[in-house]
Amino acid sequence: MKIYVLDCDEDSCANTAGLLLRYADVELVGRSAEPSSAVGEAAALGPDALFVDARLGAASGLTASERIRGLLPNVRIVYVTASRDYAVAAFEQRAFDYLLKPLNSDRLDRTIGRLRLDCGELRTD
Amino acid sequence: MRAILIDDEKPALAHLERLLRANGRIEPAALCTSAKEGIEYLSRERVDVVFLDIGMPEMNGLEAAEHIQQLDPRISIVFVTAYSDYAVEAFDLQAIDYLLKPIGASRLEKAIGRLSPGERRPAQPADRAEAEEAAAGGEPAREAEACAPGILAFRRLELRVRETGASKPVKWRTAKSQELFAYLLHRGEQWVTRDELIELLWPEASADKAVTHLHTSVYQIRKILKEWNAEVKLEYRQESYRLLRGGLETDAEIFEREADRLKSLDRFGAASAERLLALWTGGYLEQHDYPWAEARAEELKRRRLRLTLDLAAYETEAGLSSAANRRLSLLQQEEPFAEEVCRQQMLACERSGDLREALNCYRRLERRLDEELGVPPEKATRQLHERLRLSHLA
């Protein structure tokens, strides 16, 4: 399962990436703290899921993920964020999941479990 | 799909029920004014989805959701609430959607779209069990046999999985490969030249870029087809492509072919018409907005209107006015200015002896036409109204 992480806070980005790497079947295809370059990079790498902060400095993580989804219609979007404020919008956007920081490993387990099921359903590659 | 609605406020229940009935894809099986009442209902009856308010006395919606999931993890939950504060918890509970009151028809439509079996993300292992059940001869498989399009083109493109009869949207890598597939499907099994495809899909790209895009898309489609159904093939010969179906038909093609065969509606014809109309889940490829699909979409829409009117006329004659009325009011919502629909509805009301409702149908149409288009109803409609008005007076 290929995952891309986008978070403007370097530490937080590294933390999420670190937690994800504990899963043997997760392949961290890339990570970025820079929304502008991340869109093209993520689209080129074709991850199954995008872990993204809902707030990226001054920009919105929702806009960035929407742009990535424009290029990769099937990418699953998982928000990892300190703010509760974007959760309704995330439903609107049909995000896959919404996790609060600091990341709780039990909660992350559930997300990964659901991603496995979802990605295994219809593999096109 | 069957739903129950749980909300402590009766007007909110009535509003949602009305929207669901207007939409027609979900049957509101029960309205409950407390979580307790809802859970009791669920322990007796099989339900696919619960529309659940959050702010309720005694047991709130979040607690209720946990109970419901313990009862049956296959039940989908859609929260309906005036507060935005619990959306994070709704994600924790794997709710399918979170709707803010007041709900509008279009936002509700989106939520319903996420609920239909093809759309549903298999969030829980229980979904697997359901699929196996279907494969073992459960109801969905039987239903699929009755009229089995292999590919769905009404509303949106979906491929049906043969083993389970379930359909699901394919995860296309790019929108262009999806459009290429849809276009070749649209053209039947005809050969389509490379130049035509490039002109249609990549008109802006330079010649060599466009060829590369085309090859990539063809490659992706072949990969998807190989996994889905090896009998469907994308062929290439002399700079042209075609899609060989291996006998598969789309719902739109079945609809078109069968609707042509139904010349007059007797009892058996009516049953076939009803089955055919059930294939209609939305306009031809409507969610994709493909310009090349428009003419066909219009034509299919026209046929569906015709067939619904014919069936309603048969039902009215056969003394099934309420079935006719239900059918016609749903259609009228989609085609608010189609006067034939209104006329047939007036006739159905007359037949069931409800002249007052017949006259109301006319008044609503008259107001709609006046407000939106600034025109009066057609002569035929006015004449029918006059006749009914006189007999109402008498």
Name some characteristics of this structure.
heterodimer, A: about 120 residues, alpha/beta, Rossmann fold, two-stranded antiparallel ribbon, 5 helices, 7 strands, disordered C terminus, B: about 400 residues, 11 strands, about 55% helix
Describe the model.
The complex is a heterodimer of chains A (125) and B (394). The radius of gyration of chain A is 13 Å and the shape is globular. Chain A is of the alpha/beta class. In chain A, the strands form two sheets. In chain A, strands 2-1-3-6-7 form a five-stranded parallel β-sheet, sandwiched between helices. Chain A has a two-stranded antiparallel sheet with strand order 4-5. Helix content of chain A is 45%, strand content 23%. Chain A has a single domain, classed as Rossmann fold (3-Layer(aba) Sandwich). Chain B has 394 residues and is an alpha/beta fold. Helices cover 56% and strands 11% of the residues of chain B. In chain B, helix 2 (35-44) packs parallel to helix 3 (61-71), helix 14 runs antiparallel to helix 15 and helix 15 (339-351) runs parallel beside helix 17 (379-393). Chain B starts with a strand and ends with a helix. Residues 119-147 of chain B have low confidence and may be disordered. Chain A binds chain B through residues 46, 71-74, 84, 87-88, 90-91, 94-100, 107, 114, 117-118, 121-125, and chain B through 84-85, 87-88, 90-92, 94-95, 97-98, 100, 114, 121-125, 127-128, 168, 170-175, 220, 223-224, 227.
